[in-house]
């Protein structure tokens, strides 16, 4: 898998190991580990990636419960995020070549046309548009943890019109998306004040990521704060409460379903956001955050989803190694 490899010298099997489900339901009931799943065929504008690491997101299990049934085709290999090595490139692909180390969220339009063959496999296909070159200072595990979460954080702050000198309150600052909202708000968007909620044990983490005010939701209600915020970013389903603390003319953004008065959205993945953020990742201003207990081998994906579903993870959960 050296970068000097030509496409002719990389042998690609016809089948690979993957997690798959053919009915909707709970992850622990429906996921099956299969050793002979067809390796996806690529189109002219796609690359085939040898998966080194993949990360989990709540959308994975919500999809297993049938959230995207209107757009899905069963059976499904779960997983949106990938980091790995290009082993084949379609004829129209301009940016990437065999041997490139890449990462991305493979679902360009996750809600209307989610990929049937996701990233919890040895190989996955991705459109050139949704991936970027992996920052050299990041491991594959770190890179895999980023795409969906950091792109969601970025798009939400743009939709909320956060800009230099404005304030933001992050509801759920210690989760996969929340940890990136804090960092981006501070280091990329230039927020004058970043406040965030978490449980007692996670307050120091919020401060280390750049939060000026860390609020312990187990002991205080953020509605009781004496100030209001230009932007409230809800990652936990509290948009209704967020509306009480947003300034007049400010914006409440939510990634937990539609909420009256709030801007709700479903990420459209794009590699251009990752490219834009590359300098911040390479300089270490923005850091990946992986839960201390959040690394599971491919064979333990069911246990990894069980941990994700507790909603207690700090940062991201990553599947590595993948054979």
Automatic annotation (TrEMBL):
InterPro entries noted in UniProt: ADH-like_N (IPR013154), AOR-like (IPR044626), ER (IPR020843), GroES-like_sf (IPR011032), NAD(P)-bd_dom_sf (IPR036291), PPIase_PpiC (IPR000297), Quin_OxRdtase/zeta-crystal_CS (IPR002364)
Domain (PpiC) ranges: 58-186
Keywords tagged on the record: Isomerase, NAD, Oxidoreductase, Rotamase
UniProt cross-references to CDD domains, sorted A to Z: MDR_like_2
SMART domains: PKS_ER
GO molecular function: oxidoreductase activity, acting on the CH-CH group of donors, NAD or NADP as acceptor; peptidyl-prolyl cis-trans isomerase activity; zinc ion binding
Keyword S-adenosyl-L-methionine: no
PANTHER family: CYTOSOLIC ALKENAL_ONE OXIDOREDUCTASE, NADPH-DEPENDENT ALKENAL/ONE OXIDOREDUCTASE, CHLOROPLASTIC
Family membership: Belongs to the zinc-containing alcohol dehydrogenase family. Quinone oxidoreductase subfamily.
The protein's name: Quinone oxidoreductase-like protein
Lineage: Eukaryota, Viridiplantae, Streptophyta, Embryophyta, Tracheophyta
């Amino acid at each position: 898998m050296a970068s000097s490899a030509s496409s002719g010298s990389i042998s690609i099997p016809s089948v690979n190991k993957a997690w798959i489900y053919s009915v909707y339901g709970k992850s622990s009931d429906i996921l099956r580990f299969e050793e002979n799943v067809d390796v996806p065929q690529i189109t002219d504008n796609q690359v085939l990636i040898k998966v080194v690491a993949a990360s989990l997101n709540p959308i994975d299990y919500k999809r297993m419960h049938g959230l995207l049934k209107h757009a899905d085709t069963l059976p499904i290999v779960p997983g949106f995020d990938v980091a790995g090595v290009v082993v084949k490139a379609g004829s129209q692909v301009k940016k990437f070549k065999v041997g490139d180390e890449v990462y991305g969220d493979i679902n360009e339009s996750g809600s209307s046309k989610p990929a049937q063959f996701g990233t919890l496999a040895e190989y996955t296909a991705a459109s050139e548009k949704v991936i970027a070159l992996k920052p050299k200072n990041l491991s594959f595990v770190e890179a895999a943890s980023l795409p969906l979460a950091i792109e969601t954080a970025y798009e939400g702050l743009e939709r909320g019109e956060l800009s230099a000198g404005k304030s933001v309150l992050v509801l759920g600052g210690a989760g996969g998306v929340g940890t990136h909202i804090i960092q981006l708000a501070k280091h990329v968007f230039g927020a004058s004040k970043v406040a965030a909620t978490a449980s007692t044990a996670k307050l120091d983490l919020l401060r280390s990521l750049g939060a000026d005010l860390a609020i312990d939701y187990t002991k205080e209600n953020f509605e009781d704060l004496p100030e209001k915020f230009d932007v409230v970013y809800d990652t936990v389903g509290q948009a209704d409460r967020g509306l009480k603390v947003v300034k007049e003319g400010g914006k409440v953004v939510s990634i937990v379903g539609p909420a009256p008065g709030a801007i709700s959205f479903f990420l459209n993945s794009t590699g251009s956001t990752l490219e834009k953020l590359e300098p911040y990742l390479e300089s270490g201003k923005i850091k990946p955050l992986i839960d201390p207990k959040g690394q599971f081998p491919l064979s333990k994906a069911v246990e990894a989803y069980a941990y994700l579903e507790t909603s207690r993870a700090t940062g991201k959960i990553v599947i590595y190694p993948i054979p």
